[in-house]
Design goal:
The structure holds two protein chains of two kinds.
Chain A lengths: L2 H31 L1 E2 L1 H13 L14
Chain B lengths: L1 H13 L2 H7 L1 E2 L9 H27 L7 H30 L3 H30 L4
Helix pairs in contact in B: 1-3, 1-5, 2-3, 3-4, 3-5, 4-5
The chains are: A mainly alpha, B mainly alpha.
Amino acid sequence: MTAQEEQAILTAATGAVSLLQALAPTLQAIAATGNISDSQQASVKAINDALRGPLSGPEWQLSR
Amino acid sequence: MKIKSVFISVLLLVAPLSFIGCNGTLDPTGVYAGDKTLYNADLTYNAAYAAVDTFLKYETANRGTAAAPASVTASADELRLKWPAIKDAYFATRDAYSANKSNSNLTSFTKALADVSTILTTASGYIAATSITPTK
C-alpha cells in the first residue's frame, strides 16, 4: 500500500472516528463517577439528533 | 500501521458503548430526564452509525483494490441496503416511546434497538476483518 492510499483511508475514516472520540469523554466520566451529567447527556442527544438527517455522501451509494 | 491503529481505536470505542452506558446514573435534570432506556438506546445508535459509516468510507476509498475485494464491497452494499430501514424504524419507535412510554411502545422500541445492536456487531466485525487486510 502506498502512502497516498494510506492517507486516503485515514481521511475517509476521520469523520466517524471523530464522532467516537466525541463520545469518549462521556464514557470515561461514566466509568469514573457512575454519574452522567447534564452536559454529557446533551452531548449524546446532540449527536443522535444530528444523525436523523439524510444519508449523504458517496459512501452511502450502492456500488452497482 | 496507522490504518490498523485507527480501526482498532474505533473498535475499542465502539465495543463498550452499549455496556458502559448501562452502568451510569442519569442526572434527572438532563435532557433524558432520568430515562436510561432512551439514553442507552441513543448511545448504541450513535455507535452503530459510527461503525457502519467507518466501514462504508473504508470500502468506498478502496473499492477495486486489494484492500477492498468484491466480498468487502458486497458486505458494504448489504449494510447500505439495510441501514435506511433500521434508521427509520429506530427513530419512529424512539419518538413514539418518548411521547408515550406505554408497554407496547417500549416493545416496539426494544425490537428496533435490537436491530441497531445487531448491525453494530456486524459492522464492528467487518472493521476488524478489513483492518487486517491492508497490513498483509
